Amino acid sequence: MKVVILAGGLGSRLAEETSVRPKPMVEIGGIPIIEHIMNWYMSFGHNDFIICLGYKGSEIISYFKDYNLKNGTCIISSDGKIETINKNKKNWKLTLAQTGLNTQTAGRVKKIGKFLQKDEPFMLTYGDGLSNVNILKLLNFHKKHKKLATVTAVRPLARFGAIDIDNNVVKSFIEKPKSESGWINGGFFVLEKKVLSYIKDHSEAWEKGPLPRLAKEKELLSFKHNGFWQPMDTLREKLILNKLWDRGTAPWKKNNSEFKNIYHFRKNVKQA
Hints:
Blueprint: E1 2-7, H1 15-18, E2 27-28, E3 31-32, H2 33-42, E4 48-53, H3 57-71, E5 73-76, E6 82-85, E7 93-98, H4 105-111, E8 122-126, E9 129-131, H5 135-145, E10 149-154, E11 162-166, E12 169-174, E13 184-185, E14 189-191, H6 210-216, E15 220-225, E16 229-231, H7 235-246, E17 270-271
Parallel strand pairs: 1-4, 1-8, 4-7, 7-17, 10-15
Antiparallel strand pairs: 2-3, 5-6, 8-14, 9-16, 10-13, 10-14, 11-12
């Protein structure tokens, strides 16, 4: 099953980093956040990725092209040819799709439709958010309910502590309560290919066009995830994720030994 990652936005709220690199290439523990996301999917056996490029997409292309040389042993033969012995490669398959600098999120999904399987659902998520959502349970939920789309619903921690006050007396204090606004869109979608027909044009945002239409027709279900979920929209959130990684307590980290197989770079760049 294909996994589509939206990786073309400007990331303006993280300008400290994104002025020089696309947000999906911002590093957590020395590893681009997009690779963390891919590792999570691969831990459930899904390694066929379509990455929707836009802003500074060449940086993402270069990273994956250079991955062979960075993680293998090169032998230069007498005739000058370079042979790479795959040593610690990940067996992902990549389609890097140039979806345009100014294309909106729904438009990016529309443009990569030709790379999707005709009669198979696909997964979609944002290239700047980490979670420990159980992908197997998510897929089973989607297949069981037979709707066109499933979104992972999350309840993020509030930014500030909450206090319960009665007659000026603080009755309780919660350092990081769940958001009172309830469930929100956490990404990690499962979609039938028919959802592309709900996208009118390339200028539509995913959240403002197709999702409301799907909801109106009762074709959008929520898979409620009570575990870890954290976006990386700001420098503060990047620091939170790095701290979790450095402490060895990152909820999205799995044993990656199963990924140390032959690295397969199927395509260089495709024009969507």
